[in-house]
Amino acid sequence: MESIDSHRKEIIMDAFIRLLGRFGIDKTTIQDVAKETGIGVGIIYQEFSNRDALVKACLIRISRSFISGCAHIAEQDVPPEQLLHCFIQQVFIQMSKFIQENRGFHQFVKEKGFLGFYRSQAAPADEIKQELLSLISRILERGVRDGVFAMEDVPKTANLFLEAFNIYFVQLILSNRNLDELLTDVEAMYRLLLHGLKSRT
After folding, report:
1. Would the keyword DNA-binding turn up in this protein's UniProt record (predicted)?
2. Taking the mean position of all CA atoms in its chain, how far away is CA 95?
């Protein structure tokens, strides 16, 4: 029974995401989802108490898929300096890909504004941030062990490292800035930060 319910939830979320791409967040209703899936409105409300709950569930699923892709990058068996470089570049590439594939949610974020979205959907946003910090910390710890990086507080350094790229995340999400141009600036920021991270011994 649980697997059937889980499959039904996936069908509902898939349909909702498709409809957002067609109609936008404000014009997509539970009734639209019912028509798209052939699942009764009452059954949809059994799975999701309201539309906000459906929005949150979809965002959590998208967030976890994004995080999974980032985690795969962080597991590559390459030198720490190269791994950190590849990781931060691929985070932006992955985010651009998810924006392209989930235009309805992208429009939702743009309409609310970055801070408004963060406040309304704190759980998925915090999950992404904490997972990215964890992955960056693992790369930095490996670099310290290998004598490539030097720092006293890895978690704090990871947080400062990620915060240095916040402006580029905002530009990618809110301004539709060209990805190649953005990656050029990301590369420059990475090189600047790398200088401070590297061991002098």
Report:
1. yes
2. 6
Taking the complete model, does pTM exceed 0.90, yes or no? Answer: no
Q: How far apart are CA 137 and CA 141, in angstroms?
A: 6
Contact 177, 118 (CB under 8 A): no
Q: Is 198 helix (H, G, I), strand (E, B) or coil?
A: strand
Please tell me the distance from the alpha carbon of residue 19 to that of residue 30, in angstroms, as a whole number: 10
End-to-end CA distance of the chain: 60
Q: Which residue ranges form the domains of the chain, and what is each CATH number?
A: 1-49 (1.10.10), 60-197 (1.10.357)
pLDDT in tens, 19-50: 887 887 778 899 999 999 999 999 999 999 99
DSSP codes, 65-128: HHHHHHHHHHT--S-HHHHHHHHHHHHHHHHHHHHHH-HHHHHHHHHH-HHHHHHHTHHHHHHH
Output the six-digit token pair for 97. Answer: 């890909």
